[in-house]
Amino acid sequence: MSFPSVYLKTFGCQMNVNDSQHMLNLLAAHGYVPTPTPDKADLLLVNTCSVREKSEQKFYSLLGRLISLRKSASVLLCVGGCVAQQEGEKLLERFPYVDVIFGTGSISRLPMLVEKARKTGKVQIDTSFEDEFLSVAGSNGSIASDIKAFLTIMKGCNNFCSFCVVPYVRGREKSRPSGEILREAEHLVGSGVKEITLLGQNVNSYGQTCSGEVTFPELLRKINGIPGLHRIRFTTSHPKDLSQDLIRCFGELEKLCPHLHLPLQSGSTRILKMMNRGYTREGYRDLIQRLRAVCPHIAITTDIIVGFPGETETDFQETVDIVHEIEYDEFYSFKYSDRPNTRASKSLTKVSDKEKARRLSLLQEVQKHITLRKNRRLVGNTAEVLVEGCSKTNAKRLTGRSGSNKVINFEGLPELRGKLVQVEITEAFLHSFLGRRV
Ligand code: SAH
Ligand code: SF4
Ligand code: F3S
């Protein structure tokens, strides 16, 4: 007997990557095996992202291609994630061949929806937010990698930044009980995981929406105490909720990696106010100084949006200036795009696409020089690398990341996979380093 196969394509953030792993685990319990290509799959599954217009467009063009495969009677096409949550039944107007539409809070019901669609031949839609937190502990679910794993500690968002669709597609903020988080972390470590990345739309406000729960720094301290775990990371942090207690953790907790992703969005206080971000240019700068005071070598990365409605050349220059001043290790920058339901999308002072493109490439050029300059300064230093496996481009080399999240390649034997090794950095590039084991 051959097992049915599932092809899964994931768009979007780490939360979606983690959700996708849960989808595969749930389907595996019903006999589905993953396949890397869509051509012969029995189930075509897409986990979507709607954070920017481009993410949504990419999904629509893939869907266009998958629909030709779906025309074979036995193949089912399922759409989940943030676009499914946002559009729901409306997706059928453009794509009548979709069999299952399920939202971000309906993942646990995916196998049941698939079964129903197969039996009845009717479209199944579920965009309720009924799911609690999905867990790999207790299930015999596999995890994405035996070395690194994601662990969701909270979901949803109450911040309503005026450009952002996330609160609409992920619902209200909800923290997972700390006992459950610790159990899952221990389970992961027990199955060989060395590095855990805690996930949430805004991890800094962990515990604030449920009384009697620990704070995020307290949670970090507990996880730091798990024997056998080497590294802890977390994402994403909101600057307005970055407490001094959390900053102190970077100086105190030996397993907490010296890297923080702290989205700035704009260097202009006027724009930050219109974005409803809840901090100023000066307040953000102060956070960076305090972080560097407790952990001088902390790597800091960020997200920036250019061309937010009403952004003038002066506002943009303020962003360029603060990028020069802070010297991020790396950043992710985006042209503003309108998202459904958001306040900014209703603004009448949109910046032209041509101007947004000009600002984006100018800012990216600035950052490129900063990243290269900073990377070159690391040549001669020794970094602790968690070895992830063989390099894809050179079979003799291993690849891994330093605590500050830099990709470092060096010659070594495959047995080192999953080990922490000391590597001297010998050459620096824009997105990676070359080194030698010491
Ligand atoms: N929870 C995270 C952000 C998740 S969205 C946080 O609060 O920082 C990831 C990034 O996408 C954001 O940081 C922002 O830079 C970008 N983004 C979100 N909405 C956008 C929009 N409408 N246009 C362009 N970029 C956007
Ligand atoms: Fe979006 Fe703001 Fe929430 Fe981040 S904090 S997910 S940018 S609304
Ligand atoms: Fe995208 Fe949803 Fe993540 S909109 S960025 S997949 S929370």
Between the first and last Cα atoms, what is the distance in angstroms? 52 Å
Compute the number of strand runs. Answer: 19
Number of helices: 13
How many domains make up the coordinates? 4
Just give the CATH class of the largest domain: Alpha Beta
- Ligand inventory: S-adenosyl-L-homocysteine, iron/sulfur cluster, FE3-S4 cluster
- Overall morphology: globular
Could you tell me the CATH topology label of the largest domain: Transcription Regulator spoIIAA
Classify the secondary structure makeup into a structural class.
alpha/beta
Helix content: 25-40%
Overall CATH architecture of the largest domain:
2-Layer Sandwich
Could you describe the largest sheet, including whether it forms a barrel?
6 strands, parallel
Poorly predicted regions are none
Assembly form of the protein:
single chain
Give the amount of beta strand, in percent: 15-25%
Determine the mean pLDDT. 94
Going across the biggest sheet, name each strand in turn: 2-1-3-4-5-6
The radius of gyration computed from the alpha-carbon positions, rounded to a whole number of angstroms, is: 22 Å
Protein architecture, described:
The chain has 438 residues and is an alpha/beta fold. The protein has 4 domains: 5-126, Methylthiotransferase, N-terminal domain (Rossmann fold, 3-Layer(aba) Sandwich), CATH 3.40.50; 133-257, Transcription Regulator spoIIAA (2-Layer Sandwich); 268-376, Transcription Regulator spoIIAA; 382-437, OB fold (Dihydrolipoamide Acetyltransferase, E2P) (Beta Barrel). The chain is 34% helix and 22% strand. The protein contains 13 helices and 19 strands. The chain has helices at residues 14-28, 53-70, 82-87, 91-94, 110-120, 166-170, 178-190, 216-224, 244-252, 269-274, 281-294, 313-326, 353-377; strands at 5-10, 33-34, 43-48, 76-81, 100-102, 124-126, 148-152, 154-155, 174-175, 195-199, 231-235, 259-261, 299-306, 330-335, 382-390, 397-402, 407-411, 420-428, 433-437. The strands form 5 sheets. A 6-stranded parallel sheet has the order 2-1-3-4-5-6, sandwiched between helices. Strands 15-16-17-19-18 form a 5-stranded mixed beta barrel. α1 links the parallel β1 and β2. The radius of gyration is 22 Å and the shape is globular. The model has no long low-confidence stretch (mean pLDDT 94). It binds S-adenosyl-L-homocysteine, iron/sulfur cluster (SF4) and FE3-S4 cluster. S-adenosyl-L-homocysteine is lined by residues 51-52, 163-164, 166, 201-202, 236, 238, 263, 265, 303, 305, 334, 336-337, 339.
